[in-house]
Amino acid sequence: xxxxxILITGGAKRIGRRIAESLARPDRTLIIHxxxxxxxxxxxxxxxRAGGATAHAIGQDLSEASAAVxxxxxxxxxxxxxSVLINNASVYGHDWPTDxxxxxxxxxxxxxxxxxxxxxxxxxxxxxDAVDNVIVNFLDQKLWNLHPHYYSYTTSKAAFLxxxxxxxxxxxxxxxxxxxxxxxxxxxxxxxxxxxxALASENLLQRPIDVEGVPRAVQYILExxxxxxxxVFVDNGLRFWKEDWxxxxxxxx
Length: 253
Hints:
Layout: E1 4-8, H1 14-23, E2 28-34, H2 38-50, E3 54-59, H3 69-78, E4 84-87, H4 102-126, E5 133-138, H5 151-171, E6 175-182, H6 193-200, H7 213-223, E7 231-234
Parallel strand pairs: 1-2, 1-4, 2-3, 4-5, 5-6, 6-7
């Protein structure tokens, strides 16, 4: 069996950590990327190694134009070409179409669109065509249920969705391009627990989304070689939830 060398961006905390923990097994080398969460990354790597996994941590600011050097660094540490890239890292900030914040827009386009596009291109340049190469990208159910909240964030994810389709056309059959589109999984940095709790069950199933559904979806994608060019929704049907979003804008513009 070929060893899988897996890079998980934003892998030190939250969903990224859960993905890393679920993927740990003897025939895989895990590279945990972090930006500012070095302590959490080191702690996770130590825990994975204690469980018998091969794991390493690498820091990199994905907002930098040179973010793609992360692929070269990761493959060097892993001891060979990467076969799996999980583009999990993203930033999330609030703005509205009539008060678009240019700094927020630039940062979110850099991290949520430019960086995963550059990482994917660098990944493709180093792949071994003899193995099953997979890029798992993270989108958002919002793209199938557009509304004006988090305007720059949603625009950055929409740009990346378009890029994914072109990657798929350009890189077949050597690499499978897949995605996961979650709903409200965990509180955002600008949400209180009470605010999150109020939102968590606003979906068609009227219950909080099972966070562990995301790592299970990643496992399914990696293990199902026929899964390609598709999106797994982990959202309890949230993408079908309808609401008058104009009511959330005080200016009603």
